[in-house]
Amino acid sequence: MLEFIRSRYRRYRTPTDRGLTLVEALVAIITIAAVTTAITPPIFIAVATRVQNRKAEQAMQLAQGEIDRVRVLLDEGLREEEAEELPELAGDDLSAVGPPDSAADLLSDINSPTTALRIDVDADGSPDFLVQSFRGKQASVFAGGRQVPVVFDLGVRVYSIVAETESNFSGLETTEASLKFTTGQGDTRERPLAVLYTQLGQSDSALSLDKYRCHLDESTSTADCTDEEPEP
What we know:
- By secondary structure, the chain is an alpha/beta fold.
- It has a domain at 35-138 and 152-201.
- Helix content is 36%, strand content 21%.
- It contains five helices and six strands.
- The protein has helices spanning 2-13, 22-75, 80-83, 162-165, 208-216; strands spanning 88-89, 102-104, 115-119, 129-143, 146-160, 194-201.
- Strands 1, 2, 3, 4, 5 and 6 form a six-stranded mixed sheet that branches.
- Strand 4 (129-143) and strand 5 form a beta hairpin.
- The radius of gyration is 32 Å and the shape is elongated.
- The model has no long low-confidence stretch (mean pLDDT 79).
C-alpha cells in the first residue's frame, strides 16, 4: 500500500516537457504582426487628422483675431499712427490678391499685401503660422491733411509655417485647405488653413453713410470713393 502511494506521488511530481512548438510560436508572431499592421494606420490617421483640425481651429482664431484688431483701429478713429497699422491696400477684388511671397516678424516690417506675419502661438520661440492680411476696395474721406479710410473690404488668410519652411512660398494657393483624413499634413503645405473675407467701416463719421453707399455700388472702385484733396 505504501509503495502504491509513493508511485502515485512520483507520477504527479513528474515534470512535463510539453510546451509551444516552433510552428505555434511562429503562428503567434504572425498573428501579432498582422493585428499590429491592421491597427497602426488608423491610429496614424486619427492622430494626424486631430492635429490638423487643431491647427485649423488655431488658424481660424488667428484670422478672427486679426479682423478684431483692425476693427478696434477703426473704432478708435484711425489716428495717423494707427492708420499705419492697417493692412496694406491691394486691389478691389480680395480673391484676386496673390498668396504670400515673403514673411516678416514685426507688423511694422510689412510693406506689401503679399507679405505675411509670422505668429508663434505656443511661445516656444518658433513661429507656427503665417497671417496674410490685406485691404480691398475702400472708401475714404480727406481729414487732417490725409486720406482716412471709412469703409473697406478686408481679407485674411492663415497658412501653416510649413508654407515657408518646406515650400519656401513656392506653389502656394489661396483656396482654403480641405480638412480630410490624412496621415501627414495634407494640402496645408500649399493652401491656407483659414480664409476670411469681410467688410469693416466706421459708423460714427458724418460721411459714413455716403461712403458706405459708394462702397456698395458695384460700378465704383476705390478711386471713385476717395475724396479729392482740397486745393489750398
